[in-house]
Amino acid sequence: GENVEQHPSTLSVQEGDSAVIKCTYSDSASNYFPWYKQELGKRPQLIIDIRSNVGEKKDQRIAVTLNKTAKHFSLHITETQPEDSAVYFCAASGGNQFYFGTGTSLTVIP
Amino acid sequence: GAVVSQHPSRVICKSGTSVKIECRSLDFQATTMFWYRQFPKQSLMLMATSNEGSKATYEQGVEKDKFLINHASLTLSTLTVTSAHPEDSSFYICSARDSGRPRGALFGPGTRLTVL
């Protein structure tokens, strides 16, 4: 099956700085890559996604890039705010199943 | 709108007992639902894919006889943890894809299982 790796596992940034989280995947059949934000004890919430026919997508302070050849994709958060603090998961999907990365605990320091 | 619900939200049981967790899709039908397990500060690990009207597909390393999955209707999947032991204590989350919603998957709120 698919193997998704995510780095870093923890990330601390000053408020206003940018945060970057990177993921790699193994299955070339994967064609959909969502990112989820999970606050403690709560369900994951979709924040942005990208399909394999697109290289980059942006939604306000959040952007995702995809390099299909290298099988890696990244999440970029600009002008970070304390409420961005959470665990972020990347995922890869080639059909119905989602395979998740190991998660990145992001802390934004006021 | 389309939502996934889960019941119960928390359950505490004695070792050796069985626990059933329900996952429902609201305002949409889900032919496929997914069950995940999440340990504290760890990622979501896919346990099995629940298929309406047929047997579930289990991920490698997941015991099908211990984690019984039933997907009896297009809106309900159940996960039964049989003969639960303390090591089964975890956060169990289900998800479903709404065919009318092309983005991502909807997650249930999760069930915190504690086995004493």
Can you put this structure into words, describing what you see?
- The complex is a heterodimer of chains A (110) and B (116).
- With 110 residues, chain A is an all-beta fold.
- Chain A contains no helices and eleven strands.
- In chain A, strands 2, 4, 5, 9, 10 and 11 form a six-stranded mixed β-sheet that branches. In chain A, strands 1-3-8-7-6 form a five-stranded antiparallel β-sheet, with no helix packed on it.
- Chain A is globular.
- Chain B has 116 residues and is an all-beta fold.
- The N and C termini of chain B lie far apart (37 Å).
- The model of chain B has no long low-confidence stretch (mean pLDDT 90).
- The interface between A and B is medium-sized, with 22 and 23 residues.
Topology:
The complex is a heterodimer of chains A (110) and B (116).
Chain A lengths: L3 E4 L2 E5 L4 E7 L6 E7 L6 E7 L4 E4 L2 E6 L4 E6 L8 E7 L6 E2 L3 E6 L1
Parallel strand pairs in A: 2-11
Antiparallel strand pairs in A: 1-3, 3-8, 4-5, 4-9, 6-7, 7-8, 9-10, 9-11
Chain B lengths: L2 E5 L2 E4 L5 E8 L5 E7 L5 E8 L5 E2 L8 E7 L2 E6 L8 E7 L9 E2 L3 E5 L1
Parallel strand pairs in B: 2-11
Antiparallel strand pairs in B: 1-3, 3-8, 4-5, 4-9, 5-6, 7-8, 9-10, 9-11
Shape of chain A: globular
Query: What does the main sheet of chain A amount to?
Result: 6 strands, mixed
- Tally the helices of chain A: 0
Helical fraction of chain B: under 10%
Strand count of chain A: 11
List unreliable stretches of 5+ residues of chain A: none
Classification by helices and strands of chain A:
mainly beta
The SSE string of chain A, one letter per element, is: EEEEEEEEEEE
Overall pLDDT level of chain B: 90
How many β-strands of chain B, per DSSP? 11
End-to-end distance of chain B:
37 Å
Quaternary state reads heterodimer
Chains forming the largest contact = A-B, 22 and 23 residues
As a percent range, the share of strand residues of chain B is over 45%
Number of helices of chain B: 0
